[in-house]
Each structure stands twice: as C-alpha cells, then as structure tokens.
Amino acid sequence: ILNVEQSPQSLHVQEGDSTNFTCSFPSSNFYALHWYRWETAKSPEALFVMTLNGDEKKKGRISATLNTKEGYSYLYIKGSQPEDSATYLCASYTGNQFYFGTGTSLTVIP
Amino acid sequence: EPEVTQTPSHQVTQMGQEVILRCVPISNHLYFYWYRQILGQKVEFLVSFYNNEISEKSEIFDDQFSVERPDGSNFTLKIRSTKLEDSAMYFCASSERDRVGTEAFFGQGTRLTVV
Q: What CA–CA distance (Å, rounded) separates B6 from B8?
C-alpha cells in the first residue's frame, strides 16, 4: 500500500490570493502523478497527468510541478476565484492502480 | 462529452442484504475500476478489471464483493451481504488504456447507506 499525503488538509483564501498545496508520494514504483479537482456532488475531474521529473503543467490559472526523485508535486492556483473552491486530490499511479491522497479542501472567500 | 455514469445515486439497504451498484463506463475504454470513500477517509481502491477479468484487487475486496461486465456496456459491483461498515461513496472509473499518462474518468458515485 502506497502512502500518498497531501497538505494542508484545508485552506481558506481570499479571492485574488494565490495559493499552493503539496502532494507527497513514495518515489519507488512511480509511474505517474494525477491531480483531480473534486467539487461537492460531482465526480473528480482530471486536471493534470504528470510523468517525468521536472514536469510542469498549466491549465489557465492552475499549474503543477513534479519532483519524482524526492517524491512530491505542488499545485499552484494564481489569483484564486470562488469557483476554484473544491477538493484537490492527487493520486500516484503505479501501473495497476491509483493511490489517492486525502485531498486539500480549498475555500475561496469572495 | 463522454462521461461515466453510475446508478443509483443513493441506495439505502438493510444489513445483510445484497446490493448491486451499476456503472456505465465510457464506451471505448478498456480498463475499469471501483473505488470507495468512507466519510472522512481517503478514497480507497477496491478492484481493477480488464479483458473480462479482475487484474488487481485490494484487501477490502473480499469474498463478499464481486464485479461483472454482463453485457459489454455495464460494469457492476455486487456486495453479497452488506455490513454497516460498507456504508460509503462508491466510485466507478474507466480509462482508455492502462499506460503511463492515461487519465481515469470517474462517475459521480453511489452513496450506499447500510442500516
């Protein structure tokens, strides 16, 4: 069983602030790191799939980086908006299954 | 946009009863998964399925659980004799192929409540 950790567990930021959170995972048996955005009462929505050390991905105001040697990924949100409020889940993919973190719950206060 | 659909959205069942949770994966996807999330806990892997057989299962997926792809479109999870601790959100996911960089698409989940 892989232990994937996310921090912080929850975060409240003001609209317009930039924020970031962390996903750490075992660097052995690593195939890919997935980030999902999960709004209440909806299904998790894939944000990024990252595979290579040093990968950086960007989608609008959201970006992510990956360090496979030390086993962490950062997710950044620039200029947070209320619609960014959601739980952000990371998952380490080992080739057979996904191991999920507990998620970071982000609330953006207007 | 193609999506994974799950039914029912909420099921309440008595302890000891059998339940079947249904999922319709995206049509050209070949790999299927069931996950669950007990309230306040992590999303946990249950089982993966490919080519009409289980490819991997977790310790949670004991003899009370089974999966089936009965007709080429549905992917079902059966719990034979439900326990109180089976109460959770159950998520189905599918992916196009089982390779690095392939994302999984999740359904909206079935909330199972065992009373």
A: 6
Q: Does B102 touch chain A (CB under 8 A)?
A: yes
Do A43 and B43 make contact, defined as CB atoms within 8 angstroms? no
Task: Cite the DSSP H helix spans in chain B.
Answer: none
pLDDT tens digits along A73-105: 999 999 999 999 999 999 988 877 778 888 899
Eight-state DSSP code of residue B23: E
Our CA dihedral for A99, A101, A102, A105, rounded to 10 degrees, sits at -130
Write the pLDDT tens digit of every residue in A29-74: 788 999 999 887 777 888 999 998 999 999 999 999 999 999 999 9
Contacts of B46 in chain A (CB under 8 A): none
Q: Decide if A31 touches B, using CB distance below 8 A.
A: yes
Q: In three state form, how does the secondary structure of A34-97 look?
A: EEEEECCCCCCEEEEEECCCCCEEEECCEEEEEECCCCEEEEEECCCCHHHCEEEEEEEECCCC
Alpha carbons within 13 angstroms on the beta-carbon side of residue A66 total 24
Instruction: Of B62, B54, B109, give the one whose Cα is nearest residue B82.
Output: B62
Please give the Cα distance from A62 to A64 (Å, whole number).
Answer: 7
| Minimal C-alpha gap between B101 and chain A (Å) | 6
Strand partners, A69: none
